[in-house]
Specification:
CATH topology of the largest domain: Immunoglobulin-like
Number of strands: 11
Strand content: 15-25%
Number of domains: 2
CATH architecture of the largest domain: Sandwich
CATH superfamily of the largest domain: Cupredoxins -  blue copper proteins
Radius of gyration: 26 Å
Largest sheet: 6 strands, mixed
Helix content: 40-55%
CATH class of the largest domain: Mainly Beta
Length: about 260
Amino acid sequence: MKRDLVAAGALWLILTAIGELLAVFVDFYPLAKADKGEDIEHAFRVLVYFAVPVFTMVVAVLVYSFLRQHTTEFPTDDGPPLQGRGSIPLAWFVITSALTLAIAIYPGLVSIPNIFGDEPNPDLVVEVEGMQWTWFVSYPQHDVARVSELVLPVDRTVRFNITSRDVLHSFWIPGFLMKIDAVPGRTTTISLKPTKTGSYQTDPNLRVQCAELCGLFHSKMRIPVSVVSDEEFAAWLEEQAGAADAAPLSEETEAADALSGGIER
C-alpha cells in the first residue's frame, strides 16, 4: 500500500510540474486589448494554476491504477472494502477546501468588483442598441447616432449603455474578454478602457458579436470594432457627423443593415 502511494504520488508530482509549466509558458488565451480584459485573463490563469494539481491528482490515480492493477481476467469477487478513514481523505478535504477558499478570495472577492464596477466619470459614453440582426452605436456626447461600427479612442475610459429593441441579445467583444446581456426594456452598463490599438481587419477578435442565440441570422449579428488614437477618433467623429447631416439613417436603411449584418463574410 505504501509503495503504491509513493509511486502514485511521484507520478502526480511529475504531471503537476508538466501542467504548471504549460500553464505558465504556453499562451492559450487571446491577447486582451482592454484593462478589465487583462484582469479577466489574469484571474483565468490563477484558476488554471489551482486546477492543475487537482486534475493531475485524478489522472495520476487513474493511470497508476490501470497500469498496476489491471487484469485480463474478469473479476468474480468483490474488492476489499474501503472504510474512508485515515490521513488521505482528511488531507484531500483540507487541500481542496483551502483551494476553494483561496479562489473565493482571489479572483472572487478581489477581481469581480473591479471587473463589474461602474466608472462614475468616463471619458466617453457609448450607447449600444441590439436588434435582429445587427448593432447600432451612438455617441450622445458628440451627436453621432446609430452607426454600424464601434470606434473607440485608446487609453480612454468608456461606459457602454446597452439595450435591445426586440429580443434578448448579448454584447460581446472577444478582444476585450467582456460580455453583458442586452435586454429589451432595460439598460445594462459596462465600463472599460481599451489599452491597445487595432481593428477588425487586423484582429478578428475586435468585433461586437452577439453571444445569445437570437434567431435565424444570429451568427451574422456582428459589427467591426476599431481602437484608434485620439486624433483619429476626433477625425472619425467629424466624418460621421457630416455623413449624418448629408444622409440621415432611415428605417429602410436600418432594416437593410439588420438583414445584412454588420460584417460581410
